[in-house]
Amino acid sequence: xxxxxxxxxxxxxxxxxxxxxxxxxxxxxxxxxxxxxxxxxxxxxxxxxxxxxxxxxxxxxxxxxxxxxxxxxxxxxxxxxxxxxxxxxxxxxxxxxxxxxxxxxxxxxxxxxxxxxxxxxxxxxxxxxxxxxxxxxxxxxxxxxxxxxxxxxxxxxxxxxxxxxxxxxxxxxxxxxxxxxxxxxxxxxxxxxxxxxxxxxxxxxxxxxxxxxxxxxxxxxxxxxxxxxxxxxxxxxxxxxxxxxxxxxxxxxxxxxxxxxxxxxxxxxxxxxxxxxxxxxxxxxxxxxxxxxxxxxxxxxxxxxxxxxxxxxxxxxxxxxxxxxxxxxxxxxxxxxxxxxxxxxxxxxxxxxxxxxxxxxxxxxxxxxxxxxxxxxxxxxxxxxxxxxxxxxxxxxxxxxxxxxxxxxxxxxxxxxxxxxxxxxxx
Length: 427
Ligand code: GDP
Ligand code: IMO
Ligand code: MG
Known about the structure:
The protein has helices spanning 16-24, 76-88, 107-120, 132-140, 153-174, 182-197, 203-212, 244-251, 284-293, 311-321, 360-365, 391-404; strands at residues 3-8, 29-32, 41-45, 48-52, 65-68, 73-74, 97-99, 103-104, 200-201, 217-220, 260-266, 269-271, 305-307, 309-310, 325-329, 339-348, 351-353, 367-374, 408-412, 420-422. The protein is of the alpha/beta class.
């Protein structure tokens, strides 16, 4: 099983970090292929808790080579501080590889991200403010700065000037802000160059060679399917492709090389930031899911919006990603409810649909149609096999599997590595 993609099937924060870390011990490479430090992946190893933003979760597995692919946007200051934070805790980070083609997030991208959000007012996206959108916009506009530019001072200067030419006009004339000095940006970036140089590599070549040699490569998505710029709830999305195809473009590996696509699926639903969310709860149940599930953002500390499981979304994730498996997480959080509502369809202006509407206004108006499944009260955090689960928990998992369109091959019953029920092996 040489190449697998592991990605979020909902709006992010499904538990991708834990799932990646769990497989990390048996994987040779873990590759981030999109996004940047907008991600927040919590990994619990024994009594240690790690919060990763830019680095692949595989960095915590000693035998594994972590890779930042060409599709990622890299804030060099975050990269270095995350690395030193891990080094101080005794984690070996020396194997990290960073694509020279990955684009940089500079201080002006973060400034523009925050300024644009303020300017949008109540129409804002609720971004993480990390400069993700503006950096990807520069990439598409062909005025981006790449990791490899750090090592050629004259090219770097030319590119920063080209990028700031237009932006400074916008900042000064539209947003009434001070123009940014290209020299200052160049100085800051050059200050990182020496420390980053040793990690930079032709990651596309290395990964293709590794797959050809039968090594196991895991592509770790950030964010989730419904935050995808093409397939998500646009414009309330991130600026990259977390969906499975993004792994190919974001790492330089052809689709014929990928054998398995695993969707990480929370047993209920959460979302951070603005945008439609049909099963969102505004009552005590929503508050209970947030408190029991610890649904507070790892990156921005914001409360996550919480709601019941949405099978329409899960089926959509199966379709647009070609999912072969699901990893169902946080089943333990649902312990204690007498009955658990599951959204099986939407009602849109009196019409019932079981598919995600492609029209954004329809999705905004979608009302969830619920089925009510019987709950359980037994503690499930020690369950090691499917048979250890109470009958109603088993039935809940089986019902979700049937509705979602791909087998549930693992179940999370707690945040720790060992709090997982494996049903089918991923490798
Ligand atoms: P990611 O962004 O997809 O990696 O997810 P986050 O790390 O942002 O959020 C998932 C949270 O749930 C983290 O705090 C994990 O430690 C935790 N978690 C993951 N799987 C489980 C599980 O099965 N049960 C419980 N209770 N917590 C889990
Ligand atoms: P992980 O990898 C949840 C959301 C933001 C905002 C939108 C755009 O931890 O699952 P951006 O800063 O990317 O331009 O913000 O996307 N968002 C996430 N929500 N989990 C994430 O990452 C997210 N990364 C971005 O809240 O609504
Ligand atoms: Mg997260």
